[in-house]
Amino acid sequence: MASELTEGLSSASLAKFKVLQEHFVAGLAVRWCAVSDAITPHELQAELHRLSGAAGSYGFEHLSQCARAAELLSNGHKAAGTVLALALAQVQVEIKLAQTPAQEAPSAG
Amino acid sequence: MSDLRRVMCVEDDPDIRMIIEFSLATLGGYEVFLCSDGRTALAQAPNFKPDLVLLDVMMPGLNGPETLAALRKHVEMVAVPVVFMTAKAMPDEVEELLQYGATGVIVKPFDPVTLPQDIRIYWDYARGI
Contact, B3 vs B77, CB < 8 A? Predict the structure, then answer.
Protein backbone atom coordinates (compact mmCIF):
# COMPACT_ATOMS: atom_id res chain seq x y z
CA MET A 1 0.00 0.00 0.00
CA ALA A 2 1.34 3.42 -0.90
CA SER A 3 1.72 5.97 1.85
CA GLU A 4 0.87 9.63 1.39
CA LEU A 5 3.80 11.61 -0.01
CA THR A 6 1.75 13.99 -2.01
CA GLU A 7 -0.06 16.20 0.48
CA GLY A 8 -0.21 19.77 -0.72
CA LEU A 9 0.46 19.02 -4.39
CA SER A 10 -1.60 20.75 -7.05
CA SER A 11 -4.06 18.54 -8.89
CA ALA A 12 -1.85 18.64 -12.00
CA SER A 13 1.24 17.58 -10.04
CA LEU A 14 -0.73 14.93 -8.20
CA ALA A 15 -2.01 13.53 -11.49
CA LYS A 16 1.54 13.41 -12.84
CA PHE A 17 2.78 11.68 -9.69
CA LYS A 18 0.02 9.07 -9.99
CA VAL A 19 1.09 8.33 -13.56
CA LEU A 20 4.69 7.88 -12.45
CA GLN A 21 3.57 5.72 -9.54
CA GLU A 22 1.56 3.48 -11.89
CA HIS A 23 4.59 3.18 -14.16
CA PHE A 24 6.72 2.15 -11.18
CA VAL A 25 4.16 -0.44 -10.07
CA ALA A 26 4.00 -1.83 -13.62
CA GLY A 27 7.74 -2.42 -13.44
CA LEU A 28 7.68 -4.26 -10.12
CA ALA A 29 7.23 -7.65 -11.79
CA VAL A 30 10.46 -7.11 -13.70
CA ARG A 31 12.21 -5.97 -10.54
CA TRP A 32 11.02 -9.08 -8.70
CA CYS A 33 12.33 -11.27 -11.55
CA ALA A 34 15.70 -9.56 -11.19
CA VAL A 35 15.68 -10.30 -7.47
CA SER A 36 14.61 -13.91 -8.01
CA ASP A 37 17.10 -14.50 -10.81
CA ALA A 38 20.07 -13.03 -8.94
CA ILE A 39 22.83 -15.60 -8.93
CA THR A 40 25.41 -14.11 -6.62
CA PRO A 41 24.86 -12.47 -3.22
CA HIS A 42 26.27 -9.27 -4.72
CA GLU A 43 23.66 -9.28 -7.50
CA LEU A 44 20.88 -9.96 -5.01
CA GLN A 45 22.10 -7.19 -2.76
CA ALA A 46 22.29 -4.74 -5.67
CA GLU A 47 18.75 -5.50 -6.88
CA LEU A 48 17.29 -5.21 -3.38
CA HIS A 49 19.22 -1.98 -2.86
CA ARG A 50 17.71 -0.49 -6.02
CA LEU A 51 14.22 -1.69 -5.12
CA SER A 52 14.47 -0.27 -1.62
CA GLY A 53 15.69 3.10 -2.83
CA ALA A 54 13.04 3.45 -5.51
CA ALA A 55 9.98 2.06 -3.70
CA GLY A 56 10.08 4.53 -0.82
CA SER A 57 10.32 7.52 -3.12
CA TYR A 58 7.14 6.37 -4.85
CA GLY A 59 5.30 6.08 -1.54
CA PHE A 60 5.70 2.35 -0.91
CA GLU A 61 7.41 2.58 2.45
CA HIS A 62 6.73 -0.97 3.63
CA LEU A 63 8.08 -2.43 0.42
CA SER A 64 11.14 -0.21 0.75
CA GLN A 65 11.74 -1.30 4.34
CA CYS A 66 11.28 -5.00 3.53
CA ALA A 67 13.68 -4.76 0.59
CA ARG A 68 16.19 -2.95 2.79
CA ALA A 69 15.94 -5.65 5.46
CA ALA A 70 16.46 -8.36 2.85
CA GLU A 71 19.38 -6.39 1.40
CA LEU A 72 21.08 -6.32 4.78
CA LEU A 73 20.57 -10.09 5.11
CA SER A 74 21.85 -10.84 1.63
CA ASN A 75 25.50 -10.41 2.47
CA GLY A 76 26.40 -13.99 1.72
CA HIS A 77 26.44 -15.39 5.22
CA LYS A 78 24.93 -18.87 5.12
CA ALA A 79 23.56 -18.48 8.63
CA ALA A 80 21.17 -15.86 7.33
CA GLY A 81 19.72 -18.19 4.66
CA THR A 82 16.40 -19.02 6.28
CA VAL A 83 15.86 -15.50 7.54
CA LEU A 84 16.74 -14.15 4.11
CA ALA A 85 14.17 -16.46 2.50
CA LEU A 86 11.53 -15.11 4.87
CA ALA A 87 12.60 -11.54 4.15
CA LEU A 88 12.36 -12.15 0.41
CA ALA A 89 8.91 -13.68 0.85
CA GLN A 90 7.87 -10.51 2.66
CA VAL A 91 9.22 -8.42 -0.22
CA GLN A 92 7.11 -10.48 -2.62
CA VAL A 93 4.01 -9.93 -0.45
CA GLU A 94 4.62 -6.18 -0.43
CA ILE A 95 5.03 -6.18 -4.21
CA LYS A 96 1.68 -7.94 -4.57
CA LEU A 97 0.08 -5.38 -2.24
CA ALA A 98 1.54 -2.55 -4.31
CA GLN A 99 0.13 -4.16 -7.44
CA THR A 100 -3.33 -4.41 -5.88
CA PRO A 101 -5.47 -1.45 -6.92
CA ALA A 102 -6.44 0.72 -3.96
CA GLN A 103 -10.02 0.32 -2.81
CA GLU A 104 -12.17 3.41 -2.96
CA ALA A 105 -13.25 4.46 0.52
CA PRO A 106 -16.99 3.94 1.00
CA SER A 107 -18.86 7.22 1.00
CA ALA A 108 -20.50 8.22 4.24
CA GLY A 109 -24.27 8.20 4.61
CA MET B 1 27.85 31.60 -7.74
CA SER B 2 24.49 33.03 -8.71
CA ASP B 3 21.30 31.18 -7.97
CA LEU B 4 20.48 27.50 -7.96
CA ARG B 5 18.87 26.82 -11.32
CA ARG B 6 20.63 23.93 -13.06
CA VAL B 7 20.85 20.55 -11.38
CA MET B 8 22.61 17.52 -12.85
CA CYS B 9 21.40 14.16 -11.50
CA VAL B 10 23.46 11.02 -11.93
CA GLU B 11 21.48 7.89 -11.12
CA ASP B 12 21.46 4.46 -12.76
CA ASP B 13 17.91 3.48 -11.80
CA PRO B 14 15.40 4.76 -14.39
CA ASP B 15 12.50 4.87 -11.91
CA ILE B 16 14.53 7.04 -9.55
CA ARG B 17 15.58 9.29 -12.44
CA MET B 18 11.91 9.79 -13.31
CA ILE B 19 10.87 10.68 -9.77
CA ILE B 20 13.86 13.04 -9.45
CA GLU B 21 12.84 14.80 -12.65
CA PHE B 22 9.29 15.12 -11.35
CA SER B 23 10.54 16.42 -8.03
CA LEU B 24 13.19 18.88 -9.20
CA ALA B 25 11.78 20.02 -12.54
CA THR B 26 8.01 19.83 -12.07
CA LEU B 27 7.81 20.68 -8.38
CA GLY B 28 11.06 22.56 -7.85
CA GLY B 29 11.21 24.44 -11.14
CA TYR B 30 14.88 23.62 -11.69
CA GLU B 31 16.45 22.90 -15.04
CA VAL B 32 17.43 19.25 -14.71
CA PHE B 33 19.91 17.16 -16.69
CA LEU B 34 19.62 13.43 -16.05
CA CYS B 35 22.52 11.01 -16.52
CA SER B 36 22.40 7.26 -16.09
CA ASP B 37 26.09 6.82 -15.30
CA GLY B 38 29.22 8.61 -14.19
CA ARG B 39 30.90 8.65 -17.60
CA THR B 40 27.94 10.47 -19.16
CA ALA B 41 28.05 12.97 -16.31
CA LEU B 42 31.74 13.61 -16.91
CA ALA B 43 31.14 14.16 -20.60
CA GLN B 44 28.11 16.42 -20.17
CA ALA B 45 28.94 18.45 -17.08
CA PRO B 46 31.16 21.02 -18.88
CA ASN B 47 28.37 21.66 -21.40
CA PHE B 48 25.45 21.72 -18.99
CA LYS B 49 27.35 23.71 -16.36
CA PRO B 50 25.33 22.56 -13.37
CA ASP B 51 24.98 24.69 -10.26
CA LEU B 52 24.70 21.51 -8.18
CA VAL B 53 25.18 17.79 -8.84
CA LEU B 54 23.05 15.10 -7.25
CA LEU B 55 25.10 11.92 -7.42
CA ASP B 56 24.13 8.33 -6.67
CA VAL B 57 26.76 6.39 -4.72
CA MET B 58 26.24 2.82 -5.92
CA MET B 59 26.36 2.69 -9.71
CA PRO B 60 27.82 0.23 -12.18
CA GLY B 61 30.98 1.48 -13.86
CA LEU B 62 32.17 4.59 -12.09
CA ASN B 63 30.58 4.75 -8.65
CA GLY B 64 29.65 8.01 -6.95
CA PRO B 65 32.95 8.78 -5.22
CA GLU B 66 34.91 7.91 -8.39
CA THR B 67 32.65 10.17 -10.44
CA LEU B 68 33.07 13.00 -7.93
CA ALA B 69 36.86 12.68 -8.04
CA ALA B 70 36.82 12.79 -11.84
CA LEU B 71 34.39 15.74 -11.92
CA ARG B 72 36.73 17.74 -9.70
CA LYS B 73 39.41 17.49 -12.39
CA HIS B 74 37.28 19.72 -14.64
CA VAL B 75 38.14 23.35 -13.91
CA GLU B 76 34.46 24.35 -14.16
CA MET B 77 33.46 21.69 -11.66
CA VAL B 78 36.00 22.31 -8.91
CA ALA B 79 33.65 24.34 -6.72
CA VAL B 80 30.27 22.97 -7.77
CA PRO B 81 28.44 21.48 -4.77
CA VAL B 82 27.92 17.74 -5.06
CA VAL B 83 25.32 15.95 -2.96
CA PHE B 84 25.43 12.19 -2.70
CA MET B 85 22.30 10.04 -2.71
CA THR B 86 22.56 6.80 -0.80
CA ALA B 87 20.47 4.23 1.00
CA LYS B 88 23.36 3.62 3.37
CA ALA B 89 22.83 6.21 6.02
CA MET B 90 24.80 4.98 9.00
CA PRO B 91 26.77 7.87 10.53
CA ASP B 92 30.16 6.39 9.65
CA GLU B 93 29.06 5.83 6.05
CA VAL B 94 27.79 9.40 5.77
CA GLU B 95 31.03 10.67 7.30
CA GLU B 96 33.03 8.68 4.76
CA LEU B 97 31.02 10.16 1.88
CA LEU B 98 31.55 13.69 3.16
CA GLN B 99 35.28 13.05 3.30
CA TYR B 100 35.23 12.54 -0.47
CA GLY B 101 34.38 16.23 -0.71
CA ALA B 102 30.61 16.14 -1.00
CA THR B 103 28.56 19.01 0.37
CA GLY B 104 25.92 16.69 1.77
CA VAL B 105 24.14 13.39 1.65
CA ILE B 106 20.50 12.71 0.83
CA VAL B 107 19.16 9.41 2.04
CA LYS B 108 17.18 7.15 -0.27
CA PRO B 109 14.32 6.73 -0.32
CA PHE B 110 13.72 10.48 -0.40
CA ASP B 111 10.51 12.45 -0.34
CA PRO B 112 10.02 13.92 -3.83
CA VAL B 113 7.96 16.76 -2.41
CA THR B 114 10.71 17.98 -0.08
CA LEU B 115 13.73 17.10 -2.24
CA PRO B 116 13.81 20.54 -3.96
CA GLN B 117 14.00 22.22 -0.54
CA ASP B 118 16.58 19.71 0.67
CA ILE B 119 18.99 20.46 -2.16
CA ARG B 120 18.37 24.20 -1.69
CA ILE B 121 19.52 23.82 1.92
CA TYR B 122 22.76 22.19 0.73
CA TRP B 123 23.17 24.88 -1.90
CA ASP B 124 22.83 27.59 0.75
CA TYR B 125 25.26 25.70 2.98
CA ALA B 126 27.81 25.50 0.19
CA ARG B 127 27.53 29.27 -0.30
CA GLY B 128 28.05 29.84 3.41
CA ILE B 129 24.54 31.17 3.98
Answer: no
The pLDDT score that the predictor gives to residue A106 is 53
> Whole-model pTM?
0.88
Q: Do B18 and A23 touch (CB under 8 A)?
A: yes
Contact B108 A20 (CB under 8 A): no
Residue boundaries of the structural domains of chain B: 6-126
Query: Is residue B128 predicted with pLDDT exceeding 90?
Result: no
HSE-CB at B93 with a 13 A cutoff on CA atoms is 12
Strand pairing report for B52-56 and B82-86: parallel
The string of DSSP codes covering B99-128 is HTT-SEEEESS--TTTHHHHHHHHHHHHTT
Strands B31-35 vs B82-86: parallel, antiparallel or unpaired: unpaired
Mutate to test the interface with B, among A21, A57, A61 (most CBs of B within 10 A): A57
Across the strands, what pairs with B84? Answer: B55, B105
Q: Which amino acid is at A4?
A: E
Distance from CA of B24 to the nearest CA of A (A): 12
Of the options 3.40.50.2300, 3.40.50.10800, 3.90.1150.10, 3.40.50.1820, the CATH number for the domain spanning B6-126: 3.40.50.2300
